[in-house]
């Protein structure tokens, strides 16, 4: 049975871990946007609010990436989209159902358009 004291000790341990991680990230020169995202994941965990970190990541990408043309954000998003595109293309090759193939082709085209959009923003 978990007592209140056990819960406090457990929470204190999580707080200590995030404090240690922050110092580590700063000393490693980790990108500030990545640090914000890591904090969001920590807050999602301790608040039991699934999806919070994803919301923060989308906001970072929208505001700092697309809105303010932050190259590191745009580059990270571009890399993730390219990786997903490669997986979609692999899935298309092995798909034998026409409906699934059509869905995959649709997703592939949208990923290619997004890649072009991000490449164009990075060139500016």
Q: What does it look like?
A:
- The chain has 124 residues and is mainly alpha-helical.
- It folds into 2 domains: 1-68; 72-124.
- 86% of the residues lie in helices and 0% in strands.
- The protein is built from 5 helices and no strands.
- It has helices at residues 4-28, 32-47, 52-67, 71-94, 98-123.
- The longest helix is centred in the last third of the chain and has 26 residues, at 98-123.
- The protein is globular and about 55 Å long.
- The termini are far apart.
- The model has no long low-confidence stretch (mean pLDDT 88).
Describe the biggest sheet? none
From the N-terminal CA to the C-terminal CA, the straight-line distance is: 59 Å
Helix count equals 5
Proportion of helical residues:
over 70%
Q: Please indicate the count of domains.
A: 2
Segments where pLDDT lies below 50 for 5+ residues? none
Radius of gyration based on Cα positions: 20 Å
Strand proportion, as a percent range, falls in under 5%
Structural class: mainly alpha
- Judging from the principal axes of the Cα atoms, what is the shape? globular
Order of secondary-structure elements: HHHHH
Mean pLDDT: 88
Number of strands: 0
């Amino acid at each position: 049975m978990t007592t209140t004291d056990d819960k406090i000790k457990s929470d204190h341990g999580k707080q200590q871990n995030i404090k240690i991680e922050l110092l580590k990230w700063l000393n490693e020169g980790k990108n500030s946007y990545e640090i914000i995202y890591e904090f969001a994941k920590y807050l999602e965990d301790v608040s039991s609010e699934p999806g919070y970190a994803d919301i923060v990541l989308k906001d970072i990408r929208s505001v700092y990436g697309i809105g303010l043309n932050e190259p590191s954000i745009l580059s990270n998003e571009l890399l993730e989209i390219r990786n997903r595109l490669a997986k979609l293309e692999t899935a298309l090759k092995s798909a034998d159902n026409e409906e699934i193939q059509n869905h995959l082709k649709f997703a592939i085209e949208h990923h290619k358009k997004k890649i072009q959009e991000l490449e164009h923003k990075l060139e500016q």
